[in-house]
User: Fold these one by one.
Assistant:
Number 1:
Amino acid sequence: MSLLTLKDIKVEFKTRDGIVQPLNGVSFELEAGEILGLVGETGSGKSVTAQAVMGLLPFLDGRVSSGEISFMGRDMLSLSEPEYQQLRGNQISLISQNPMTSLDPVYRVGHQIVEGLQLHTDLSREQARERAVNVMSSLGIPNSEKVFHQFPHQLSGGLKQRIVIAMGLCADPRLLIADEPTTALDVTVQAQIVELFRQTVEKMDLGLIMITHDLGVIANLCDRVAVMYAGNLVEIGDVKSVFARPGHPYTKALLNCIPVLNMEADSLKAIPGNVPSVRTYPKGCRYHPRCPDAGPLCRKIPPEIIRTDPGSRVLCHQFSPQWRKTL
């Protein structure tokens, strides 16, 4: 049994202009001890996927309109809000992109970790304090006792991010979702945080969903990668296989945007156009207006997900029998 399973998830939001659907049939599985990377441009649906798993959509005038979400064999979509509150921060933790949005500037960081621990566990305040300091030390935070009593503004960006990770890990979650956790960090600190996530997953045998724009982070950290575009999961598979043999034209385009040593000055290629608005998704394949390989079929009919290599799936007409008939 997988730790987390999403089957054909569709999400709706209420807006002033009516109902919009930012997720359209997203499916994937995550095992304990596995790291799955979610990658794609802004507006692809990565964060909405995380919000659906966390049960946060009702607070944003949204809902899962169809599909299934299962966590440790439990149907998540049947849970009431009080039941979800028992899972958030306990069995499932979310690490946000900007640590300053997660840390209250008027409270010492230790107080904030202890407060979360006492909310989700039966530990006394002294036990929670000891647990917090131990977790901070295990995350490589120097002088953890001293940092415990400091305010967020007294810490560097890397230390603040480690504190947020400590807040997420203190209650021993089974699933950790990290939403762009390295975006605001310099390269050296980013590498340290990536290594920290790897060690944490190995030590605690938890599942990690890493949401990022950075394909370098995906390559260095993740076991599998799921590529998202305009609310669709367009490709998923083993990181090494996807990077070596990308199937979807969008995945190929993303990889062509990565600079490498000794490349010619004009060989770095940008993807033309932009991700379409959730209100103006094109007919047929949502990527076809930007795709150099698009054919008549792509402009008329939405593609179906097709299994390619074992464990890999691609949402593209080029892998379907219908495509070969149009050639």
Number 2:
Amino acid sequence: MEENATNTSVPQTSESTTKHSFARVPMDKRQSTASIAFIWAGSVVCIPVLAVGALLITQVSFTTLLIFAVLGFLIQSVLMCLNGIAGSDQGLPVAVLLSKSFGEKGARFVGSLVIALNVTGSFALQTTFCAGAFNAALLSAWGIEVPFWISAIIWGAVMLYTAIRGFGGMKWLNYIAMPLLLVVSIYATITSLSNYGGFSALFAYQPSNPGDLMSVLSLLIGLIAGASVICADITRHAKSRSATVISTATGFFPTAVIFLAFGAIMGLGAGTGDITQVFVGMSLPVIGLVAMILATWTTNVTNGYSAGIALTRMFGFSEDRRWIGTLIAGVIGITVAVAGITVDSLYGFMSTITPPIAGVMVADYWIDGRGKKENWGIREGLNWTGIAAAVCGAVIGFAFPNFLNKAINSIVVAIIMYTIFSTVAKKSLPKIQKID
């Protein structure tokens, strides 16, 4: 590290860490390992994971799906641990952590843009699920058919309005939606397994039209690619490195594998990769569809809010104009939903543009910084080495989608290129500013 690095300070949180989203989380405000693990578990108890499970079981056997789920989520878990440790070491969110590898301006524009793309895409996908579930519920209960685009606009607008207003008033709905979805999913899984013929039939299943295995792995990695980047936003609240690793290993990893398996079993039992039709086919379809609507609604409040924050930071809006960023993200998300977004297209795209940033973060903290928290700091302006390395990773992912695995390829390329670029340009880069 540069000997003449300057010092700057980031304000410490006092009353609530949520009031200072870009401040260090002091040790006396850190959360227990169990609470962090619970947050990670809750993040994958959601409709998209079930949907991907139901989709992928049409392409691979259940055994293969389990193997690839373990491999894909293990790769994600390792990345989340490495980048999550940076968060717990520094007590800072990813928007600030990227200020060394991307530079302060690079983190604001490039980092915020990628985060906005991730959560806006998720907003669109959740709107699609919600509109589909609403239409299915009307048809199942009263025989009423509504054009999809109308439902997508109506529900997208409702969820966008909630996000603009803030989601504090939605807490009670979260308390109902998540447990309800979990209970309904367990019930649907058990029922589907029984209808399909039990475990023997499940493990004997072979798809009639097998898919490409590397594409399956890329889709699994793309499903939660954003978590390997934004994980520091959660782990900055962890008390130690070990707490970060344990919470990821016990909360995120097993829950992701299990819930993906739930979705696959539901898909087999219903004979479709459409998760909405899976819930329609339940003996209690209305309850299942209501669970889908509530779960997508509450999740999308967070998606819209997070996208608004990212765009607000990127465009330089003041906090009281956050609603403008949220409105922009929501309108884009609704438009994409109406246009017909699909699970594989969204996560196929995210599995290419997001992993390279995770690779840059790993290379910056663990190779350039040698994993020592005192070696991290902020670089003013743009740090072209991190941005160029991320672009190189993404280009390789897009250019060679069928060579091995594009998500892993983009991560490896980003790590290698950042290491090379930062070594060559070390003396010409903006000085690092230490944070007190």
